[in-house]
Each structure stands twice: as C-alpha cells, then as structure tokens.
Design a protein that fits this description.
This protein is an all-alpha fold. It is built from 20 helices and no strands. One of its GO terms (biological process) is regulation of transcription by RNA polymerase II.
Amino acid sequence: MAANYWVSTQRKFWTFTPEKLLEIRDELDRQNSKVLDQWPYPDRRLMLIFLRDRILQLGKRLQFRQQCVATAMVYMQRYFLSTPMQNVNLYLLVATAFYLASKTEESPHHIRLVAAEARQAWPEFVPGDVSRLGEMEFCLISEMRSELIVWHPYRSLITLKENQELKLTNDELGLAWSIINDSYMTDLPLTCPPHLVAIIAMFLAVVFLPSAKAAGTLRPLPHETLSNPDAGHFSSLGVGGRQSLSTPINSVLSNLQMSNLMATQSNAHLNGKASFLNQTETPSQQPGDREKVINPSKDNEKMQNTIKFLVESGINIEQMIEGTQELISLYDIWEQYNEKSVKDAVARCMKARGLDS
C-alpha cells in the first residue's frame, strides 16, 4: 500500500481529467452501441444511486465499515470504464464489489455468507452457485489490475475540522459527511483527489447549513466517528439534497472565483510583476480591493473565513468549482429518481440477455 495518495495507484492510474473520462466512455459506448441502443438505461447517476442503495440493502444484515460502501462504489465505477452496465449482472456485481471491498477495508465476510445474503435479497437475479461470485471477484480484480487500495475524503474532512480558522461545527461536519457519501454517485472519485472532495463537501456544508436545517435534512456526525472515521455511519442527503441547496450558489462561486483572481494578481505583484498588472487592472481589481472580495458579507464571518481559507490554501479553485457544480447537478437529477423504473429496466435487460442465470 502506498504511504499516501500522491504516490498511489489511484492517482497514477485511476484519476482522470473530465475530458479523458468522457473519451473513455464515448469509445466504450461506440463499441457497444447496439446493446446500449436496444437496452437503454437511465442516466448514469441514477443508476449509481440504484446500485448504492443495493449495497446498503445487502449491508443491512451484515456488519460493515462505512468505507466498504464507498470502496465498493469506486470498484464498480472503475469496472464500468471497460464494461457497459448492460453487459453484466448488476446484482451479482454489487455483491462481489461489497465482498471484495470488505476484504480490502479489513472487515471481511465469508464468501458463502455474502452469497447467501445476496441470494435472499435478490433471488431472481443472484445464482445459488457460490463459485459465480468467486468468478466475478476474479473478473473485478483483473479489470482493476489488482489495484485495490482506495483513498477516501473522510480523513481529510476530519483534518479540516481541526483547522482553527474554519471553525467547523459538528452540524457542518455531519452535512459535509453526507455530501461526501453522495459524491460516490458522481465522477468525483475518478477525477478529483480525496482532499479536494473533502474541501468541496466542507464548502457546500458551510454554504447550505441554514437551508439544511430548515429542510430537516441535517444529520449531526456522531462523536465516535471523529476518532474512527472508517467505522462511521453512512448518511446521505438523497432526494432532499436539492431542498438543502436552495441558497443561490452562483453568487457564492462568483465571489470565490473573484477572490482567487485577486489573490493571484496580488501574488504577481509581490513577485515583481506589478508593471504588467498595472496596465491590465481595472479600478475594481486593485489589490486593495482583495479583502472586499474575500469578505462578500460583513455579517457572515463563517463564509469570510471559508473563502479566505480556499483562496490561500493553494488548491485548484477551478477544479473545485467544477466539482461543486457536479454535486449540485446530482441533487438536481436525484429528484427524477424512481427506483421501480430503474429496477424494471435492469430486469428487462438482464432477462433478455440471459444475465440472470
């Protein structure tokens, strides 16, 4: 196992730019166009919501660490980069990903127990032969080239809690925790480093905490989770997430972008580039205005501190904003989620293609 994310196989081989990810998926769709056209599935994010719920359904009867769910989701996301959803028994894949993740996260279950629970949960689609789960495990490991260690954002979020400038409350931490859990239904695990996902979740939690309280979607983080993030509970904003995100986010993101621009220009002045910037700055872009942009509201010290932290942290602000918008779009489309329609589409495809035997 790599000592940190930056030298891990996750960063080297399983982190992509959005453009590269789109290219991989477009090529996969082109190669399997006939099957995809004949058996269309709903939006990928809706499918991932469905699969995540199946993992939680399976885990109800089995003790598991929270990270087992997150790791299993990452395994399936990686697998779908080389295999269309229509070409695999999704229920068997869910059981296998959970089984493999439980071993990776050091909370293993016997293969017969996982197979039996999966068979009981989905008798129509999970074969009784335990060897089928073993075969699927071999296939999953092979597709991932045995690169099984996954780095998650949870510990980075705990580190942010310890930052004295941010002064995160337990309510904000709990909301951010739920947002991280929901991020596994997006492309963020394949495009962003874990610490950036944690920062995105923290930022959204600070912005939307008042709305979350009003909507009743707030779930405070248990104190024991702070000392043992791996064993934390699995919460989610779910379909109520859009209600929690009722605050106008665009204005906040604009403030963040402008703050980052001001910081960049200010640093350029300090590096001896003042002559160039003086020719291009408008009166509203003078370095003296930086504090005004960083402090969008004198009445909101929390937002001031958060934006100041983001600007001074050295993170990729543009990538963070893209990730923020991706999470918001997840909650937008979540309102369209209908479990029965997804389940019916999966059943039709699997039965017609003989994937249920």
